[in-house]
């Protein structure tokens, strides 16, 4: 069990009634709480959501607060400070005065900083410090009127050749307030991507998806991400740029295994972080499985940190991996499904 969950169980006497576990790890915490607790989960991680559902735990996958009454919430600190501000706002917009918010996080994950964010709504008390984690309690002394989701958007403009894109990104989404270097290295090559049915794996704020759609209105774009905030951001980016939403297919995925088949191209700046931890599983799975999801002569385009050893993984299934660019610490990698395997 996750050490944060172990600390919550140590202090389970503080919990009672309808308890919402927010951003909880995919473990059995909800099933190990006492009978006086009816626990459910709010998560924006689709892989975790599927894990909870398969374990019989009631889970809500969304960017918005569940439409149900709760007596208490336990927030597992997210990596993003802005995302925690959003979560706290929606929590105090739905709960009542004197109800309790609990905050749990790893010390190296910034739990002490996060506890200070609670102070805008009430006094805090540290309940426990164990397993390199801390558990805090705050009794709500100030509630708020719920602000629309768009209030939390960050927007910025990206100039690509003669095209200009307005990017919309919600809290916690990768590259929320600027174009990241990896995508900037990849973007000049997007004009070479085949038309047809294209998957953008790890779509984030939708920069790649929107630009591919803008270049060719006949493309069908499948924007894939594990994160509900990323999927909503991509949709908002399409809307902000006046792109045709019938081109866009938003799909929550647990990993690349859930991607559509018979694709003409796969384009990705693949993720390799899970919360505060580095995790290469999703991007390595992409390299290994991509060919199975492509039509004959379908293309794979990836941008990755120079130090990541993806070419051998791609070569194992495609037979050849070409380096189209190597600059600013990133490589653009290309493979074609009709090459000899």
From TrEMBL:
Top-level EC class as recorded in UniProt: transferase
Q: For this UniProt record, give its keywords in alphabetical order, as a comma-separated list.
A: Cytoplasm, Methyltransferase, rRNA processing, S-adenosyl-L-methionine, Transferase
Q: Does the keyword Amino-acid biosynthesis apply?
A: no
Reactions this protein catalyses: guanosine(1207) in 16S rRNA + S-adenosyl-L-methionine = N(2)-methylguanosine(1207) in 16S rRNA + S-adenosyl-L-homocysteine + H(+)
InterPro entries reported for this sequence: DNA_methylase_N6_adenine_CS, Mtase_sm_N, rRNA_ssu_MeTfrase_C, RsmC/RlmG, SAM-dependent_MTases_sf, Small_mtfrase_dom
Its predominant location is cytoplasm
Listed SUPFAM superfamilies = S-adenosyl-L-methionine-dependent methyltransferases (SSF53335)
What residue stretches are annotated with the Methyltransferase small domain?
165-333
Q: Does the keyword Protein biosynthesis apply?
A: no
Name where it's found.
Answer: Cytoplasm
Tell me where in this chain the Methyltransferase small N-terminal domain is found. Answer: 5-156
EC annotation?
Answer: 2.1.1.172
Q: Name one GO molecular function term.
A: 16S rRNA (guanine(1207)-N(2))-methyltransferase activity
What interactions and quaternary structure are annotated? Monomer.
- Family statement: Belongs to the methyltransferase superfamily. RsmC family.
**Functional description taken from the UniProt entry:** Specifically methylates the guanine in position 1207 of 16S rRNA in the 30S particle.
Q: Which PANTHER family match?
A: RIBOSOMAL RNA SMALL SUBUNIT METHYLTRANSFERASE C (PTHR47816:SF4)
| Protein's recorded name | Ribosomal RNA small subunit methyltransferase C
